[in-house]
């Protein structure tokens, strides 16, 4: 592994990678070290992700804050050459993070999964290119941080309805708080989104 002496490599602890039911979407659990003072963990390590077989060059960090429980952000993606891989974590509060595989030809095409991310569990969710993504806040005062491997491109940004019946996502809420953009979201079948596996 470049940049690390062999002696350091041997004692390096690994992040844990947990497969989800969706092909290529994985949960990552960092090693957390705690004592009477509190805790410490590496929130991102390119090297440790490479040890898990994840070699992605992230170029931008995004942070979002949601004041109220029941806020839903999504479903979003970028199309074309600016499609994004996302690595999400919840710094404060708790979210239900949802990914939908919309890559034609994928063994999990049109399936979705959800992961609970929180400031307490410190899990991360890796969502590859070709997926829709959204999250629902399960508490007030939620802060989310996510890394992306392509820059934001407004003309390639797409918003799909969170309640698209073709996707049938069980959010556990009927009337979430939505942005004006997400209120105008369209059905996936009416969109121009095209991803291949």
Structure description:
- The protein is mostly beta strands.
- The chain has one domain: Jelly Rolls (Sandwich), CATH 2.60.120.
- The protein has 3 helices and 15 strands.
- The strands form 4 sheets. It has a 6-stranded antiparallel beta sheet with strand order 1-2-11-7-13-5, with no helix packed on it. A 5-stranded antiparallel beta sheet has the order 10-8-12-6-14, with no helix packed on it. A two-stranded antiparallel sheet has the order 3-4.
- It is globular.
- The two termini are 29 Å apart.
- About 4% of the residues have low confidence.
Feature tags:
197 residues; mainly beta; Jelly Rolls; six-stranded antiparallel β-sheet; five-stranded antiparallel β-sheet; 15 strands; 8% helix
How do the helices and strands line up, and which of them pair or pack?
Elements: H1 6-11, E1 16-19, E2 26-29, E3 33-35, E4 38-40, H2 46-51, E5 60-66, E6 72-78, E7 86-92, E8 94-101, E9 103-104, E10 112-118, E11 124-127, E12 131-137, E13 142-148, E14 157-159, H3 180-183, E15 195-196
Parallel strand pairs: 9-15
Antiparallel strand pairs: 1-2, 2-11, 3-4, 5-13, 6-12, 6-14, 7-11, 7-13, 8-10, 8-12
